[in-house]
Fold these 4 entries.
Entry 1:
Amino acid sequence: MKQLTFRNGDKLDILGLGTWKSKPGEVYDAIRSAIKIGYRHFDCAFIYMNEKEIGHAFADAFAAGDVKREDVWITSKLWNNSHKKEDVLPAMKKTLSDLQLDYLDLYLVHWPHVFKKDFMGATKAEETWSTAEVPHIETWREMEAAVDAGLAKHIGVCNFNKHKLKALSEQASIIPEMNQVELHPMLHQNDLLEFCKENGVHVTAYSPLGSPDRSAGMKASDEPNLFEHPVIKELARKHNCTEAQIMIAWAMQRGTAVIPKSVNPERQLQNFLSTEINLSEDDMQLMASADTGYRYVKGQFWAFEGTEYSVDWLWNR
Ligand SMILES: NC(=O)c1ccc[n+]([C@@H]2O[C@H](COP(=O)([O-])OP(=O)(O)OC[C@H]3O[C@@H](n4cnc5c(N)ncnc54)[C@H](OP(=O)(O)O)[C@@H]3O)[C@@H](O)[C@H]2O)c1
């Protein structure tokens, strides 16, 4: 398995398991089976509401000797309502307690939006703070404190465009080590990838299969299905593999970590075996033709009137 190397030499398996929408009642088995298949990189978040069950699965896997704590990489994320300086470390400690861990390998700021403490899912301007009131650097100083305290080995962000990443990096003592963003064959984000590469920030591709299991309310009515995309189908035929394997192999070939979610052991194995597929230069060029800049996770849900949090602010400013 290809790995990404961090500034202190720590290594991360480039393929991991996503856990958003992995329901309580199914995520325990999903974690245990993924570990047995060979996954060593797991992507979690407080807001996925399943960290307790994931914690049980890890505790049992460690106790059964399936894997050692130091041989797995566990990422989690700080939710939007815990950006104020007094809220960051308590939020992180809650995640650590739910996951039954002493430390996280990577802790990420989930979104650049800031919600007031009582509003996990803000619905209007009054339920948010502006970034003038709670600047990203205020949150980041606490993320840095988590590293100093040994609670996180590495820290980073999600859904940060290059302007926000640059602004934060200029003030940071620890430059973000990871930016986790949506990437798949219809959304290449070459410019952001280039920026991250130049600045030593690793990138993780989320929703690499187009996130087909999101609820209907989160989906656009004309949403494209990546599994039906002619370029992806053509490459799957050529390599005698599945469409999912092409999408995952493509992400790895670009040097990004990739975290497809599956609770199904057969699909977990299928996805894991993508590491054996090598796409040629011609294949990569053909894939370039699929990039239309299409986002599945659009960020319009927090574009409240009377706030700075427009979709344009999120992705472009
Ligand atoms: N930082 C962020 O803001 C952010 C946002 C979105 C996602 N993420 C992370 O990225 C992870 C992945 O993204 P995602 O969950 O949005 O979507 P995804 O990984 O693109 O797609 C997951 C869906 O694909 C199905 N699937 C998995 N493997 C398959 C295969 N080989 N063939 C056919 N279908 C397959 C899964 O079904 P089964 O489970 O039934 O197999 C599930 O319905 C998340 O789980 C989360 O950890 C982070």
Entry 2:
Amino acid sequence: MSSGTYEFDDRGRKLFKPDVPSFPTLDEVHDLLDPAMASVREFDRRLGAWNREAAVGRLFAGLDAVHSSAAEGSTTTFTDLMEYETSLRIAPNVDDAAVVAAVADAFQEDAGDGLEGLVLRIHRRLFERARDKMVAAGAGKLKTRANFVGDPEFPEGFFGYTSPSSLADALRNWREFTLAADPRTSELLRQLLSHWMFEHIHPVPDGNGRIGRLLVPIVMKLKGQTTMACTFFGEAVHEEKAMYFAALKDGRITGRMTNYARQMLAFVRATAQANLERMDKLQALEAEWKSHFASFRSDSVVHRLVRYAVTKPVFTVNDAQAQLGVSYAAANTAAQAMTRAGFLAVPEDVKRDRLFHAEEVLAIFDRFRPQSLQVR
Ligand SMILES: Nc1ncnc2c1ncn2[C@@H]1O[C@H](COP(=O)(O)OP(=O)(O)O)[C@@H](O)[C@H]1O
Ligand SMILES: [Mg+2]
């Protein structure tokens, strides 16, 4: 079975143009499809039930952005992102953190003006501030030159993505497939197959992986499959990068999407399950904090700071004060109370000594945190 065609460009290079992939049969995937969809729906439901003005969704979007970007070589950890998103805007690598923050923000995008427009808007978000002037100038634009990935199975050592001259046609096929609605096929499967197509087209010079992993949740939401854009799989891809690349490639080589679809469903399920566990831990932690302050006056700012710190695990007094609409002194007193309780800690280095860290919240999200920094 063929998964696409090879075209030769004017320099004689072989460039791949994917066909619309065929769906695996249901009996080839149903053992993974139902659990994956059930986990995503449960995660979506929990996010909706505990929305907090979208702050909870934002926290999980940040985590997916960190992992999806780490799979591409970014070094920004979840804690780094949280520090960057305070008014101090600090990070070990500020440029890198800015792009991860842009990925996290992009989950709020929608495809109102069409899919190609969405792709280019996300691409602009990611690259418009690039230090490399050429890269910044190309932000929000389709590629004009062929792009490749190393592949020892080709005599030239490279696999070539879709030719710039075939982009319009390839993207039209991709868009029609992605937006099609057929009640006989699973929408999750359709979007995962759409991801396979998108990655093989590789329409922009860079960022195709991160953009492709944003499109699945955004389109799942657009299609009414979830209420939030939460069909994440960045974490699983980060963990099993080689398997992800191999699955993408397997679909192209065999022309059969079964292995690819199974791998991706397993990724979606694993990521949703990990997030459901985090949600449990986060809610238990909030309950513990609340009960600690149960004897405080009901109008004490500390109660509101507890709620705030659960979804904003790094903040300055100024951040908290602005968000809660209280005086600096009141926010500071509440932060000190939480610090005395052991729920907040302030890093000792001079660059970060205005930041309060809710270490237990960070420990729930940040798997790459050194143990010594964790409170318990
Ligand atoms: N052999 C392959 N065939 C198809 N797609 C691939 C292959 N290897 C990697 N990819 C896809 O390309 C992405 C990397 O492309 P790139 O444009 O650099 O995106 P990013 O900058 O976000 O990493 C990977 O995340 C993956 O989705
Ligand atoms: Mg890249």
Entry 3:
Amino acid sequence: MRNLLYNYIVNDFTDHSYKSCLEYFPFDSNILDIGIGNGKMLKTFHPLIRSKQLSITGVDINKVYLKNCKRLIKKYHLQDHLTIYHEPIEYFSPPNNEYYDFVLFSMSFMLFNNQPLILDKVKNYLNPNGEIVFFQTMFKNKSWLLDFTKPKLKYITTIDFGKATYENEFFTLLEKHKLSVSQDKVIPKKFGKGEHRMIVAKQN
Ligand SMILES: C[S@@+](CC[C@H](N)C(=O)[O-])C[C@H]1O[C@@H](n2cnc3c(N)ncnc32)[C@H](O)[C@@H]1O
């Protein structure tokens, strides 16, 4: 039920996000996907992941989502391309002291209460030219209604949508962490306020 609800509500976002991000990653990239979710994107993008020879490490705290993700990895024979860990990113350490070409937050960064801590942590997992890729809905103007309602959506939908991401606050946070934006792409969407954006940041 939880997985069905997640699929119904998040489908459109997920496909937009992974399409933009997977197309952005060069051939043979090594990616840490923080909050990989139920792996639904594998249904659409398994040929792309295989043809680009991507290596994805997925981390998530939700056992039910990961169980589904595991099933899809098996179904599409992606065992050589995807490894998943049931762990909060706050406690995760890359196996074998691995470094990644990209750290990906696809609709997950807004869920973290302590975003500065998460950024500090994941910066250490990047290769020297590594980049952090964020896909998220962003708002230009502060709205008390949005701030009040968004965190409460989880009680109605069982899905945690976290807090609203405001453009100026987000860019200030990146700046404070010495991350500069190398790409900022708006992805057209069908409904709702706010913009879907893929933002790529690298260390100064
Ligand atoms: C909105 S979903 C996005 C899933 C997928 N990346 C997508 O774009 O469809 C956010 C995911 O982040 C996971 N998550 C939340 N807090 C986390 C944490 N502390 N560490 C790892 N994953 C977390 C949730 O369980 C959920 O699967």
Entry 4:
Amino acid sequence: MIDQAEQFSRKEVLPLSDRLDHQEEGLMPSLIRKAGDLGFCGIDAPEAHGGFGLGKNLAARILEHLSLNASFSVTYGITSGISQFGLSVFGTEDQKAQYLPRLTTGEWIGAYALSEPNSGSDALSMVTRADQRGDKWILNGTKMWISNAKWANFFLVMAKIGGEKVSAFLVERDFPGVSISREEHKMGLKGSSTARLVLDNAEIPLENLLYEPGKGHYVAFNALNIGRFKLGSMSIGPAREAIFQSSGYAKDRKQFGRPISEFGLIRQKLADMAAYFFVAESCLYRTGQNIDDAFATRDKTVEGMRSAAEEFAVECSACKILATEMESMIVDEALQIYGGYGFTEEFPLARIYRDSRVARIYEGTNEINRIFLADRFMRRVAEGKAKGTFSGDSFISELAGKAYSRFSKDQVVLGALSDLTLLCYAEQSVRIRGTRLGGLAQVAADRFTKWANAKAAFAFQTVTGEAVTVPAPRQSGTDELAENVLERQAPLLSL
Ligand SMILES: Cc1cc2nc3c(=O)[nH]c(=O)nc-3n(C[C@H](O)[C@H](O)[C@H](O)COP(=O)(O)OP(=O)(O)OC[C@H]3O[C@@H](n4cnc5c(N)ncnc54)[C@H](O)[C@@H]3O)c2cc1C
């Protein structure tokens, strides 16, 4: 299915990029329908309701290859992911039977509505309210930034019962009182729909309350945990495409009588891009495997599924931050390889660059994820559940262990602790994979470790104020890594 996903992206989606950016009538929904026909719209949904029931790891790999065009990817990612996950985990059998088959076939498009004009990061300060009147919930409020709004038939909406208890509701577009405002005029992701969902005395059947009253934050945040992990895959998809395009360009473009791919500073960029991709990929699919293992060992009750998703909340945040920041660095260097042509709309990098920027903002900004990560990890340390993470077996883990003894709620300290934690996780992940695969994987791991050690030393100084000597780097492998990328026009290795 991974190959099929890449073929779908290359044959069906990428050739339509310009038309998608103009939001040509009916085009995106027809692509989602095609994806549904191929089984992509419910890859990790339960088989009983039209899904494939695949593990999160394989589903994320498929998502990566369906993400070469980011506008398609966000549309697809939300309808097949965050809008369905809450329903799959917290829905009653009747609710699942009513909505999942239409979403998993691509007949319907789903959306997830948490944010409001005045509550973004502070999502629980939402003011959309729900009140029971007779046999209906009456919802009033405006949900902002709702991806897929223009096309969605189904919205997972968070609102406060009586203005107090955050609760989740299954809302159909055609329910009375539901409407969509104009499209936001965005800097990127122009092919995706982002608009407000307006609920004006919207009438929702009583049975469309999802899970329990006052427990909507469980639904919202559990969906977000897995959503963050999946956003990691959605971020390295465009990074993969940026590597493909820019390595091809570097071979073709000649200056000073030679292909620019022969110049040391261009080769350095290609080698860095390979190493950044390698680290994001290694963290993501290590986490995916751990989540799958946790799901396999839990009972299939709501509590079992919820605790499995929650257990890896720290790693999901680490993946979101790492993958989106690696994506930004890869895409930025890829555009630089194109020189002035990269700055025009005639070449693919301008779109990839514009589209990639938002990944550091949504599904929890990277600042909010950093604060959450360090805080949550400290709780794990206090509960004795962090054994092995800072085992002192690397420069970074040693620094991280020492730095956590100075834990404080000061945000700058939290940010630096979070950096140490995710660098530690990343360094472990590439080391494990580098040792297992050897060869170029080991070279990429060493290159990343050199970069990560310097970043970790800076973060350690921020927490402690103490100077620290960074270990001498091992091989940097510029030519070997660059040559491999140029030859294959792809990231270093595939899993
Ligand atoms: C294209 C797009 C699609 C989206 N799709 C959806 C969707 O489908 N459904 C949905 O519900 N939402 C969606 N969102 C909303 C998105 O999740 C929010 O934009 C995001 O959570 C940030 O909220 P905000 O924009 O209100 O920024 P704010 O929360 O106002 O943040 C502004 C800045 O302040 C920082 N900040 C905020 N609080 C703190 C703090 N405590 N400490 C330190 N820094 C802080 C932030 O990191 C950020 O840099 C989408 C947004 C965009 C742009």
